[in-house]
Design brief:
The complex is a heterodimer of chains A (404) and B (280). Chain A is of the alpha/beta class and 404 residues long. Chain A has one domain. Chain A is 16% helix and 41% strand. Chain A is built from seven helices and 20 strands. A ten-stranded mixed β-sheet of chain A has the order 2-1-5-7-9-11-14-16-18-20, covered by helices on one side. In chain A, a hairpin with a 2-residue loop joins strand 1 and strand 2. In chain A, helix 1 crosses helix 4 and helix 5 packs across helix 6. Chain A is globular. In chain B, helix 1 runs antiparallel to helix 2 and helix 7 packs parallel to helix 8. Chain B is built from nine helices and ten strands. Chain B folds into two domains: 37 residues; 186 residues, 3-Layer(aba) Sandwich (Rossmann fold). The two termini of chain B are 17 Å apart. In chain B, the strands form two sheets. Chain B has a six-stranded mixed β-sheet with strand order 6-7-8-3-9-10, sandwiched between helices. In chain B, strands 2-1-4-5 form a four-stranded antiparallel β-sheet. With 280 residues, chain B is an alpha/beta fold. The chains are: A alpha/beta (404), B alpha/beta (280). At the A-B interface, helix 5 and helix 6 of A face helix 4 and helix 5 of B.
């Protein structure tokens, strides 16, 4: 019996609803996008794209190891500025490397649900980033996925390979300009972190009020490898559902997930799922959610399968309005002896005591709330270069993040 | 009340006399007036927390440039009094009034009181995640020289740390002083600023309180005032106080010279002190 191809699997899963999140009617979106003109350098992009990228923390003209920009379905920039990193658009990469088939759809199943199936059936678009063996980059690869046409179903499939002993930092901003009324973004990402490689992946989302988002991410980390995965969502969105899965496959692999959400509306269903499959592995997932409206479901699942694995989940929510909901679901699944797994979850309001303390210093109630909210969202992220830390800080410390 | 009216009459009539003789100018009468009514005037104050009345007929008058000490056993209402003056909403004034700088602040919100010039060093302040101490200093007072304030309190390493987060008992107290030095209130309330503090830092805190209450300038030029709650009195060796009060069961029952009162408390306890110095 032959193994079904990606296309065959996808075809069967066309109607398969996702386990979590609201169901999206794919038929109501257009799958054909107009073409955009490619440019040589990120600096030559239309100013509205550069501005939108900047708004999600991606300074395209600042120092970088390279850049990838996709407008709708067209990769318009795919350029490496550093010999240690290879950056290509996915279609070109698949043509160049036959061996990429060993990575293609290996961490995310094409038939996982109708969204992965939809991406599998579309022509490949997305980035291929490879950090070459032993090459360490400090400046991040900057990427921007720009959904610029109303009613479009933007489909992206990315692959990141960090080869043995490499170090790679990637920042991706996903955004829509304000004139886009409605849209759908489906992004499949597969990250391969090989022996002793170190990767940070920072994703900042800024979508529109009528945009639906379904990222599908699979990550594998080999012996001694590490991942710092950071997700930031501070702008309104209609719906998002994502549950990236990381497998710590080699001894001593480490994964850390940081999630920062400021919710004003919509249905946001996010989290992380980590399998600790090798000795001495450790994982941490920290999420901070502020809601002044909308529904946030913060999931976290850790499965420990070998002795000595360590996992910690932390989900803290501040609910600042009656219009919001924060539903925290931490799950720990221990399947071996000698595990060290823990979680803490708390959902509540701002502490009166903290408010009063700041008001005793002369801050108004509104100022004090804003200071506390911004402090709450200021998650300490380890393993990031200083510049990237600062950019994240600039994003999470915006003046407009307040109480209800 | 009879007592303060008498003083008022005394001052007022002498002011009229001096005015008639042309010895003082009309504008100066207001200074004499403010000395009479004080910077902070609490009259017949009753206050509750959680439905339980804690303060019972408190009367307290603190003039410009004066620093008072407040003694009393645990649970007698000292912290409650400071919290009521600060305006923490959980504390409810049942009757009586609090006047500050001639304004009735009894119903004023706590941030308004702070902006009017009332500052407080909390006994057990909360930690604030993600808010760096040096950033808070700038929020409290954009003109404040954060590095020199931190240096003065031997607290330089703490500017980049979250406010009070993971601080030891003594560090928390220095954090409070740092914030007050930035705020520069006209009236500072210190709720056990010396508890949990080692001897070396008690001196540092005492000196900072002297700065906040302008004990480094001549008495007649002082405009800033304060009140301190302390159990041990060590800190009083490093700072100057003008007057002391003993509180028992929610009322101020004895007032006088700080040294005398402290000595009596050490000798015969709070109640013994009151019985000796202020017999009913």
């Amino acid at each position: 019996m032959s193994v079904p191809s990606v296309e065959e699997k996808a075809k069967k899963a066309r109607e398969k609803k996702a386990l979590y999140g609201t169901d999206v009617d794919l038929e109501s979106y257009e799958s054909e996008a107009r073409e955009h003109e490619a440019v040589e350098k990120a600096e030559e992009l239309p100013s509205e794209v550069k501005k939108a990228a900047l708004d999600v923390g991606v300074k395209l003209d600042a120092e970088a190891s390279g850049a990838y920009v996709q407008m709708d379905q067209t990769p318009v920039v795919a350029k490496s500025l550093y010999e240690g990193v290879e950056i290509m658009d996915m279609a070109s990469a698949l043509k160049k490397y036959d061996s990429l088939q060993d990575y293609w759809w290996k961490l995310v199943a094409p038939d996982a649900d109708k969204y992965t199936a939809d991406v599998a059936e579309a022509p490949p678009a997305g980035y291929f980033i490879r950090a070459k063996k032993g090459m360490k980059t400090v400046f991040p690869v900057k990427s921007c996925l720009y959904l610029g046409s109303t009613n479009l179903n933007q489909r992206v499939h990315n692959v990141i390979i960090a080869e043995e002993g490499s170090e790679l930092h990637v920042i991706t901003g996903c955004t829509t300009p304000s004139h886009v009324q409605r849209g759908l973004h489906i992004g499949v990402s597969e990250f391969f972190i090989q022996k002793n490689a170190k990767v940070s992946f920072t994703m900042i989302h800024s979508w529109g009020k009528e945009v639906e988002v379904r990222p599908r991410t699979g990550i594998t980390i080999a012996e001694g490898g590490s991942l710092s995965n950071n997700y930031i969502l501070l702008r309104p969105v209609k719906t998002i559902q994502t549950f990236p899965t990381a497998t710590l496959a080699g001894r001593g692999a480490v994964a850390s997930f940081n999630t920062v959400i400021y919710s004003t509306m919509g249905n946001i269903d996010v989290g992380s799922n980590v399998n600790l499959n090798a000795p001495e592995t450790s994982a941490e997932s920290i999420s901070r959610v502020v809601s002044v409206g909308g529904e946030v479901i913060a999931r976290g699942r850790m499965t420990g399968r070998v002795p000595g694995a360590r996992a910690h989940l932390e989900c803290v929510g501040l609910l600042l309005s009656d219009k919001g909901r924060i539903y925290s679901i931490p799950e720990l699944d221990g399947q071996s002896r000698d595990l060290d797994m823990s979680h803490e979850a708390a959902v509540g309001r701002i502490s009166e005591e903290e408010l009063e303390y700041l008001m005793a210093r002369g801050l108004t109630s509104e100022q004090a709330t804003s200071v506390i909210v911004r402090g709450f969202l200021d998650v300490e992220i380890k393993g990031l270069p200083e510049e990237l830390k600062q950019e994240i800080k600039n994003i999470t410390q915006r003046e407009d993040l307040r109480g209800a | 009340m009879v007592f303060s009216s008498a003083i008022f009459f005394c001052y007022f009539s002498s002011a009229i006399f001096l005015l008639q003789k042309g010895i003082i100018f009309p504008g100066e009468i207001s200074i004499a007036y403010s000395e009479v009514i004080g910077l902070l005037d609490i009259n017949n104050l009753y206050a509750s927390i959680g439905g339980k009345q804690v303060l019972k007929d408190v009367n307290l008058h603190i003039g410009q440039g004066e620093t008072h000490a407040l003694f009393g056993p645990n649970g007698t209402g000292k912290t409650t009094l400071l919290n009521v003056i600060a305006g923490i909403p959980r504390y409810v004034v049942d009757s009586g009034s609090i006047t500050f700088k001639g304004k009735d602040i009894t119903r004023m919100s706590m941030d308004e009181r702070a902006r009017l010039g009332i500052g407080m060093a909390f006994q057990r302040p909360p930690a604030i995640r993600g808010l760096r101490l040096k950033d808070l200093i700038k929020i409290i007072n954009p003109q404040a020289d954060a590095p020199s304030i931190l240096k003065r309190m031997d607290f330089e390493g703490f500017g980049d740390r979250d406010v009070n987060r993971g601080f030891s008992g003594g560090e928390v107290k220095r954090s409070e002083m740092v914030q007050l030095l930035a705020q520069q209130p006209d009236f500072v309330m210190l709720d056990e600023p010396d508890s949990g503090v080692d001897l070396e830092n008690i001196k540092l805190i005492g000196e900072a309180i002297n700065t906040l209450t302008q004990k480094d300038i001549r008495p007649s030029a002082r405009t800033k005032s304060g009140i301190i709650i302390t159990h041990f009195g060590h800190i009083l060796e490093y700072m100057k106080t003008d007057r002391a009060h003993v509180m028992l069961d929610g009322s101020i029952v004895c007032s006088g010279n700080p040294k005398e009162i402290l000595e009596q408390i050490k000798k015969s306890g709070y109640e013994g002190c009151v019985a000796c110095l202020c017999p009913a």
